[in-house]
Structure prediction request, 432 residues.
Amino acid sequence: MKILVVGGGGREHAIIKSLKKNPAAEKIYALPGNAGMLGDCECVAIGAKDIEGIVDFAVKNEIDFAVVAPDDPLVLGAVDALNEKGIKCFGPNKAAAIIEGSKVFSKNLMKKYGIPTAAYEVFTNPEEAEAYIQKSDTFPIVIKADGLALGKGVIIAMTKDEALEAIRSIMCDKIFGASGSNIVIEEFLTGPEVSVLAFTDGKTMVPMVSSMDHKRAGDNDTGLNTGGMGTIAPNPCYTEDMAAQCMKEIFLPTMDAMNKEGRTFKGCLYFGLMLTPKGPKVIEYNCRFGDPETQVVLPLLESDLLTIMQAVADETLTEDMVKFSKGSACCIVKASKGYPQKYDTGFELKINEAELAKRNATVFVAGAKLGGDDGKTVVTAGGRVLGVTARAESLTEAIDKAYEAAEFVHFDNEYFRKDIGARAKKWFTESM
Ligand code: AMP
Ligand code: GLY
Prediction:
């Protein structure tokens, strides 16, 4: 089979490494991929948002199966365009991808179908939003841009003044671009956060092992929000009882709601949950695998990813197709110092594969290109450069191994958090 993966980050590298385990995957192309993946696939310089370019490439190269991983091409309709040419895909069509593409849509869906989420109001003009805030007396309050904003379209306003400022900057100054034309203002929730990715073909919903992201740039959850500085799986806060409750109150109702709306979701549905004192609530839906959640979830998958993805596309998914190991995984993201703001790139990546193997660890590269004096050296090319994932029997061991392994992966100007999994470990030990 010839397989195409749209996207170019660490998540796509993890997907490709998993797909590669199936001997039927003769050839894998990444569009655009990155230089750190070259040992695992062929990278083609076509951007993930270039839908026409992707379809042309797929047709010319007789692609048998495509995996569209990032939000942008999904929301733009890449799956619809590939399907039109007879190419089977893993990923939701445009009608279903709106579950991530519009927060107004997803909030209204949850309200209509009684799926637990934060109370909210939608505003289409800044004056009404400001008047609403003037009358509010409960802070913090959460203000979200409607559309895709690289996962950054959320402001938690601690005071009335901050909330008014947030409305102006999103709706008038357009700090998140056009995605801020409409906003959602919602209740501030508290509790541990859990990410649950689930395979679904619209008939069956099979959740994967749970995980926990670390979104802030600095240790102890300080600093700016980022795309994710590290992950652990499973998430110790997510008990079996909680999983059963989420299945009944959130996962299945969401699948049914999308079917009833004529927007059957096929692919990986990401549930960003908060375990509040009043029960689990949805913070956000994503229409795709999470990044860097995928880098801890897929290494724990014992079943064959390609088989599952094909079953999702064919609507023949069954629960017994998806088996996870009982172990744990931890991913440490190494970023360029200065991320998520200004940073320098172009530094050589040095990876000691032998030492990684000794620790059951793998590197998933997110931001690299060919450069250096010879033009053939793999050098850094982004904010988040790579993730080092280690697997082990226990969470504690996985965290220790990941940090040990991270010592054998280097580039100048690197920065990483020293406390990935620390809070989870504390919760876990306290609850024992
Ligand atoms: P989102 O992009 O919707 O995932 O939001 C980014 C982050 O903001 C989440 O991971 C939460 O930590 C936080 N957040 C979003 N909505 C709320 C809320 N209603 N209450 C508290 N925190 C929230
Ligand atoms: N890690 C959060 C996301 O993928 O949106």
Observations:
- The chain has 14 helices and 25 strands.
- The pocket of glycine (ligand 2) is lined by residues 151, 213, 228, 286, 290-291, 293 (CB under 6 Å).
- The CA atoms of residues 167 and 173 lie 9 Å apart.
